[in-house]
Sequence to fold (81 residues):
Amino acid sequence: SKFTIVDQETCIACGACGLNAPNLFDYNDEALAYVMWDNNQGTGRIPEHLQDDMMDAYEGCPTDSIKIADSPFDGDPLKFE
Ligand code: F3S
Fold:
């Protein structure tokens, strides 16, 4: 299984991820995206049945703000970059 997190430093609040993966991404007061499962810490394993949505969101983000990895991010979107 995978982990995902939004880099809110580069998110431009375009809203695509919530359309592609409504059970994964929501938006804060500033319309910046975050992962609902773990309050955008990147520590929650994404269930198998949501992985296709996650990949759609990943590929559809215009600023590459959605990160995916095999290990937890521990709150740092750039942990593996
Ligand atoms: Fe932001 Fe990308 Fe979603 S710009 S709103 S993380 S599709």
